[in-house]
Amino acid sequence: MNKILSTFICALISTSAYAQSDVNLGIIPAPVSITKNNGNFVLDKTVVLKATGAEGAKMSELLNAFIVTKAGFSLREVRDLQANQKAIVITSVGADQLPEEGYNIKVTPNQILLTGKGAGLFYAVQSAMQMLPEKVNDKINIPAVSITDYPRFKYRGTMLDVSRHFFPISFIKKYIDQLAYYKINTFHWHLTDDQGWRLEIKKYPKLTAVGSSRNGTIIGHYPGIGNYLNEVKGFYTQNEAKEIVKYAAERYITVIPEIELPGHASAAIASYPELSCFPDRDTFVSDKTAWAGSKKGKQVQQTWGVFDDIFVPSENTFTFLENILDEVISIFPSKYIHIGGDEAPKTYWKESAFCQNLMKEKGLKDEHELQSYFIQTIEKHLNEKGRSIIGWDEILEGGLAPNATVMSWRGEAGGIAAAQQNHDVIMTPGSMGLYIDHKQSNSPDEPVTIGGFAPYQKVYAYDPIPKVLTTEQGKHVIGVQANLWTEYIKTPEKAENHAFPRLLALSEIAWSPVSRKDLKNFTEDRLPVHLAKMDKAGINYWVPTAIGQSDKALTGGEFTIDLKAPVAGAKIYYSLDESRPSENAFLYSAPFKVSVPQGEKRTLKTIVIVPSGRRSVVIETLLNNGAPDVKTEVKK
Ligand code: ACM
């Protein structure tokens, strides 16, 4: 056998070896229940495909296209089955009894039966695609099983910030494909912020003519060392946004737009200065770089942070925002419109005679109540149009708007308070791993990030229902979300690196019952297969570090190094001589022992290199046998 062929076959064998031994059949998120039965369904060219109804026909097309890529042949589609004909059957008959978005899969030696309706049937197909092992001799052997599945939470979301950096439509679609594959059903699109307004609004063309570009961005971590002088720009036309809504809906994903107010509004104010309390004031820039603030007038911000120049709560502003929101709701059919509400400093409102008079006139005791008045005015308008608002947890300050749903990001406190007030809540606490702009390991190889520490294991460990809530209050937690802010994420590739595999962990905590959580199975059995697929699909996921490597310094004289590849087909290279490992270092093939003489230390450094050539960060473990002057804190 030539080398390329044998390597290829090894990769296939290793992929299917992971999947077939897996109690979850390689499915992410883990289904509610899987019962193994006797025998196998052998998928070969003789199998036919039968679907009922228009929905079934669409799903059968989807599954057949997948079978072509997996097996190299397509299945003949039939209207009626002969007696005992081997078939895959896709149906919504019997689905009325299933929970919302739920489905069943029953595999017997003669049939694969997928039952569901709407999203449920789509998810049945996603699971079926995930559980198909690799083919051997033109056949795919699928173990006989019964799967019952439905989601824990109805809201399973992820937010992408396209204001700090702009991402093209082609990338948004590629991203949505992945969300659908993992049963994430909400794409929260953060369209406006201080650094760019990204949605065409026909009534106010300057929002994009002026607000969608900025002159530069800081180099490196805030406050940066100067700036890129190239322009950062881009926006979505209404037709493009509608195209995304349709594309997502075909995959059972709702797009929720976010229009930030009253803060994070610099791009809008740069376009229409009359929206400011002080239209004639130059933009205040909070950073210390020499280039910032060198221009007069209102600016789209070029760096990050929280800015004092927020919307003035005037009739003119409300009319302006309501007109914008009317266009927004004509594009986005979602029940929810996200109106931001976070990080709105009250400095300008305190200084503004107009705001102070308004507060007296309306009987508002402080600026928090003024913010609440602002949000409630907007909520009333949206409620009248049949929509509901979501706001970040600051909308609790000064009193919650009557029908608002709260997105808890500053820990869980906001979510808990809102649920205790009988408001619906979406949990997305940054401190619990749900801010996936945070870094994924402590290796110095990690790219520049905003800070924080959120490895996928931390996402996986999170339970969105806080223990302090009663059962009734807990029902107000309608879901969970991971947020991808993009201050330090300039390209689709880096966005993918931040998103995956953390969104796979999110999908499991959003969908699977707590009793089905199993980090070891997720990490060692399922992720390796999924990441190998992502590798082939050209997704720039974060390559996990070697499984089994200690993230703590170890003490002793004899160490057994027992590692596992985190991606099917990946290789682990290691060094013990302080050099940085690469393909030129030792290739790990089996557990080995390291002896460290008394009073000495060694450093085990590893790197994982996957079939495409993508590589992990290098991590190291100190093996210490009483060496002098060695710090023994966590090193990774
Ligand atoms: C936020 O991270 N400012 C919601």
TrEMBL record:
Pfam families: Fn3_assoc, Glyco_hydro_20, Glyco_hydro_20b
Catalysed reactions listed for this entry: Hydrolysis of terminal non-reducing N-acetyl-D-hexosamine residues in N-acetyl-beta-D-hexosaminides
Domain Beta-hexosaminidase bacterial type N-terminal: 26-150
GO BP terms, alphabetized: carbohydrate metabolic process; glycosaminoglycan metabolic process
Residues of the signal peptide: 1-19
Keyword Signal: yes
Catalytic site positions: 343 (proton donor)
GO molecular function: beta-N-acetylhexosaminidase activity
InterPro entries registered for this protein in UniProt: Beta_hexosaminidase_sua/sub, Fn3_assoc_repeat, GH, Glyco_hydro_20_cat, Hex-like_dom2, HEX_bac_N
Keyword Transferase included in the entry's annotation: no
Residues of the Glycoside hydrolase family 20 catalytic domain: 153-513
Domain of life: Bacteria
GO cellular component: membrane
EC number(s) reported in the record: 3.2.1.52
Keywords for this protein: Glycosidase, Hydrolase, Signal
Family: Belongs to the glycosyl hydrolase 20 family.
PANTHER family membership: BETA-HEXOSAMINIDASE (PTHR22600), BETA-N-ACETYLHEXOSAMINIDASE (PTHR22600:SF57)
UniProt-recorded name of the protein: beta-N-acetylhexosaminidase
Source organism of the structure: Pedobacter yonginense
